[in-house]
Amino acid sequence: MKRIIKIILNILTCLSLPFGLFVVSFITNNKEPINSQEGLYFMLNVSWIFLLFLPISIVNIIYSFHLKKKNNKYKSNLTIGIIFSILLICFGTMYFVTRSSYSKDKNYLYNLEQKIGIDLPNEFSILSVDYTNAKQTSIDNIYLKRVSIVRLESENDLSFTNGWISSVENQRSYVPIIFYYDTVNYEKFLIYCFDTYEYNPNKFNLEYNYVVLGYDYENNNLLIYEYNFAK
């Protein structure tokens, strides 16, 4: 009987993490994230679910001490229990470690609206990810500074004046590759240089800072990527 309990606890402990991943992924996908950054945020928001599976690994650890006391083999239960307890705690507390990088402050969009001289709707929700304090590697020699996902609440409330264009294909080498693929089905775009106050520049300077916006009619949302070039 002890052997059966020992095996069952080890199996349940090993399944706790993948089952937690399944539940978290299921909840995240149901929220229909616009891009990977928003998807990660949704996932982090429910990462506490991993902690619900922690009692399984803890019971396995406790049972290993019982086996040891009875002079039975216990090391596999103890080892598996400890490893998965650590993993579940790490996954379950990820949001508390990373939440400082996320913001829902609408003032960012209001300030950006004034800086680049465009008219944006007043009713919206926003999620911004700050990359300025993170170490980045870049395959396209572009470093992200800030990524914002804006969900507009009113349809047909966006004025496409002051430099909006229908494609960034000609500037593909000068916008973040992740933005290019995130917005492959988007209809309107705008690139702005903060240093020269220029819309959709023909030449890009490695010393300057840029922002690129993409608008999707179908989902009525904006993606905004602030970036500069690796020097």
Describe the structure.
The structure is a single chain. The protein is an alpha+beta fold. The chain has a seven-stranded antiparallel beta sheet, covered by helices on one side. It has helices at 2-30, 36-45, 54-69, 75-92, 94-98, 107-116, 177-182; strands at residues 102-103, 124-130, 142-152, 188-193, 198-199, 209-216, 221-229. Helix content is 41%, strand content 19%. The mean pLDDT is 90. The chain starts with a helix and ends with a strand.
SSE blueprint and pairings:
Elements: H1 2-30, H2 36-45, H3 54-69, H4 75-92, H5 94-98, E1 102-103, H6 107-116, E2 124-130, E3 142-152, H7 177-182, E4 188-193, E5 198-199, E6 209-216, E7 221-229
Antiparallel strand pairs: 1-2, 2-3, 3-7, 4-5, 4-6, 6-7
Helix pairs in contact: 1-2, 1-3, 1-4, 3-4
Q: Could you give the distance between the termini?
A: 65 Å
- The side-by-side strand order for the widest beta sheet comes to 1-2-3-7-6-4-5
Structural category: alpha+beta
Query: Approximately how much beta-strand content do the residues carry?
Result: 15-25%
Q: What are the low-pLDDT stretches, counting only 5+ consecutive residues below 50?
A: none
**Radius of gyration, in angstroms, nearest whole number:** 24 Å
Global geometry: elongated
Q: Can you give the mean pLDDT? A: 90
Helicity range of the residues?
A: 40-55%
In DSSP terms (H or I, runs of 4 or more residues), the helix count works out at 7
How many strands appear in the DSSP assignment? 7
Largest sheet: 7 strands, antiparallel
* Secondary-structure element order, N to C: HHHHHEHEEHEEEE
